[in-house]
Specification:
The strands form ten sheets. The protein has a four-stranded antiparallel beta sheet with strand order 2-28-25-24, with no helix packed on it. The protein has one domain: Kelch-type beta propeller (Neuraminidase, 6 Propeller). It is mainly beta. The chain starts with 9 loop residues before the first strand and ends with a strand. It has no helices and 30 strands.
Length: 353
């Protein structure tokens, strides 16, 4: 891989493997200006990524930012570095295999694991690891099951949990796998009780993993037993392409609860939101967003508030942002990524409109 300038700062790893599309910067309970505009919370346009993209992943880690990209028209896999000090993107090289709808996480070693996805040849078991100290990509052990539209979660043990997703013949999976970085091996773990894809997986303070999003059913994975337990369902109807965020402490909501916002049902887009309390294992409604949306991003700010950006609604792609204040109980693009920098600013990368 091409080398790039190392910078002693927190940076974002965004592996971008996506279909080419036009890129616009936009963001949207307490409404903010569009990304190009300015209000009390400033949302400023940054330099465009070199390759337009969607279905990519963003991971914050110290010293670098990179992205990989998939372009369906001619199958390229490109990596990019974002420099928060200069606000610019630079192409640094390609991954070994083009892909989109993959997932990425930083390992405890500081390396970054990219898992699965799909390209013109189909669904992938192939995984790759990026080493920020050498700026090199290398192949990692392959998953047992080819999959895309899955999630990866770094467990407290340092192992990685991969959950469900989609595979060949558009089969929705219930299978899950564990990656051991020390052995560079994958093994199957307990199946979820329901097949799902395009979901959200959130590491709870207990070390367990909450999976929700693609319908009204939620499940929790226990790494000690390797088993899943079903929870009380969210709401009266399923919600797809919603987003989950682990909350910090607030006057009303205790640290460790999970906010699930928006989504789309069988007939319409949602502005409604729900809170999951791990202590009780139950869901409760909270205030609605001002805009119905799905496929947006939510980011926990240092203040404990939640920034929701863009997404897709009944009128199409959205260009507004919203702030949710847990203490008060009081968001155009989709399939983008949003990551908090050490400065407290939010980097919005790629997406579709």
């Amino acid at each position: 891989m091409n080398s790039f300038i190392l910078r002693a700062l927190t940076s974002l790893i965004v592996f971008v493997l996506s279909t080419t599309l036009n890129s616009e910067y936009a963001l949207q309970w307490h409404s903010l200006s569009v990304l190009h505009g300015v209000k009390s919370e400033h949302l400023n346009t940054r330099t465009h990524v070199r390759k337009t993209r969607r279905f990519h992943a963003g991971t914050s880690f110290n010293s670098h930012k990179i992205t990989g990209s998939y372009k369906s028209s001619n199958d390229v896999a490109i990596s990019e570095i974002y420099d928060p000090l200069l606000g610019v993107w630079n192409i640094i090289g390609s991954m070994a295999e083009e892909r989109e709808a993959h997932a990425a996480t930083i390992l405890k070693s500081g390396k970054v694991l990219v898992v699965g996805g799909e390209n013109l040849s189909g669904y992938l078991t192939h995984c790759e690891i990026y080493n920020p100290s050498t700026s090199q990509w290398s192949s990692a052990g392959s998953m047992v099951v080819p999959r895309a539209y899955h999630t990866v979660t770094l467990l407290n043990s340092g192992k990685v949990l991969v959950t469900v997703g989609r595979t060949f013949n558009s089969i929705i999976l219930a299978s899950c796998e564990i990656y051991d970085p020390d052995m560079d091996t994958w093994s199957l773990t307990g199946n979820m009780t329901a097949e799902r894809t395009r979901h959200t997986a959130i590491l709870l303070n207990s070390g367990k993993v909450l999976v929700t999003r693609d319908d009204s059913r939620s499940e929790v994975y226990d790494p000690i037993t390797g088993k899943w337990n079903s929870l009380a369902s969210m709401g009266p109807i399923p919600r797809y392409d919603s987003v989950g965020t682990l909350l910090s402490s607030g006057k009303v909501l205790l640290s460790g609860q999970v906010l699930v916002s928006g989504g789309v049902g069988d007939a319409d887009y949602f502005s409604s939101c729900e809170i999951y309390n791990p202590l009780t294992g139950k869901w409760n409604s909270t205030s609605d967003m001002t805009e119905s949306r799905s496929s947006h991003t939510t980011t926990l700010l240092s203040s404990g508030k939640i920034l929701a950006t863009a997404g897709y609604g009944g009128a199409g792609f959205l260009d507004l942002s919203e702030i949710y204040d847990p203490s008060a109980r009081t968001r155009t693009r989709s399939y983008h990524s949003a990551t908090v920098l050490n400065s407290g600013k939010i980097l919005i990368a790629g997406g579709e409109n």
